[in-house]
Amino acid sequence: MIWFLLLVFIFALVMGFFQVPIWIMFGVLAVMIVFFFIRNPLVFGKDPEKMVAYLKRSKAPQLQFLYHFLQGDLPAAEHELRNIRSKKAKQHSELMLLRERKEYGKAKDLLAKMSVHKTKWYMLADIAIQEEDADSIKQYKEKINDAFLLNMLEVDQAVYEGNKHEAVAMLEKMIPTLRGYKLLTAVQLRKQILEGKI
Q1: Per-position DSSP letters for 58-77, written without gaps between them
Q2: 174-198 average pLDDT score
Q3: Residues 48, 90, 78: CA angle, nearest 5 degrees
Q4: Rounded to whole angstroms, how far apart are CA atoms 102 and 129?
Q5: So what's the pLDDT on residue 172?
Q6: Which of 3, 46, 87, 167 could bridge across to 158 with cysteines, CB 3.0–4.6 Å?
Q7: In this model, does residue 107 exceed pLDDT 70?
Q8: Could you tell me the pLDDT band of residue 169, with boundaries at 50, 70 and 90?
Q9: Exposed (0-12), middle (13-18) or buried (19+): which is 11, by Cβ within 10 Å?
Q10: From CA 92, how far away is CA 71, in angstroms rounded?
Q11: Phi (first) and psi of residue 145, to 5 degrees
Q12: How far apart are CA 45 and CA 40, in angstroms?
């Protein structure tokens, strides 16, 4: 992503130096952005296998972390976690590991340090589901506006209550409408439920 933005900046400088008309600059920029989105299946991708292959080929530590995490290789994911430079990305990745390991106390401590965001409310609501804290579940759910996250909380609730067939049915209903990261998340969760890993 950084290389892409650097390339756009350099390209804009060169076009500015040659005094290219502004409409051409915007046209070229639009083409570059569309090309970026087409090459990156994690944004609007419809094929989970291509997304996983993209993660595997990627050199970015955050994407390598996600690849190992999705494969269930937590030690390799933790190794990649150390290489992530972005503080926000590192916190989100660490939260994923803590949730997977059911270390809810540590997850709450980390969430307390994070800024207000829909992901924070989702994780707190998910922890409240695991801890059977109905008041907290309601409180955090009210702060979430994202329909995908609300649906995922319902899936998590169904799994926790042992209604795995219902959870899979909810996911299968959602999957055709999803793209990118959200699709990959839903497909992976369905796979884990069907394999009895959760």
Answers
A1: ---HHHHHHHHHHTT-HHHH
A2: 87
A3: 75
A4: 12
A5: 92
A6: 167
A7: yes
A8: very high
A9: middle
A10: 18
A11: -105, -15
A12: 8
Pick from 44, 42, 43, 35: nearest CA to 4: 35
- Match 């970015």 to its residue by tokens: 60
Whether the pLDDT of residue 189 is over 60: the answer is: yes
Q: Is the pLDDT of residue 37 over 80?
A: no
Q: Tokens standing for 162?
A: 């042992």
CA distance 63 to 81: 10
Contacts of 174 (CB under 8 A, 6+ apart): 148, 151, 186
Q: Which residue type does 81 have?
A: L
Cα angle 168, 169, 175 (rounded to 5 degrees) comes to 85
The 3-state DSSP class for residue 149 equals helix
Q: Amino acid identity of 99? A: R
Closest by Cα among 175, 173, 172, 168 to 194: 168
User: Tokens representing 161?
Assistant: 């209550």
- Does 128 or 42 have the greater pLDDT score? 128
Each residue's pLDDT tens digit, 38-72: 777 777 778 888 888 888 988 888 989 999 988 88
Task: Output DSSP code: residue 92.
Answer: H
Residue 143, classed as helix, strand or coil, is coil
How big is the CA angle at 146 (ends 141 and 150), to the nearest 5 degrees? 45
How is residue 132 annotated by DSSP?
Answer: T
pLDDT band (50, 70, 90) for residue 2 = low
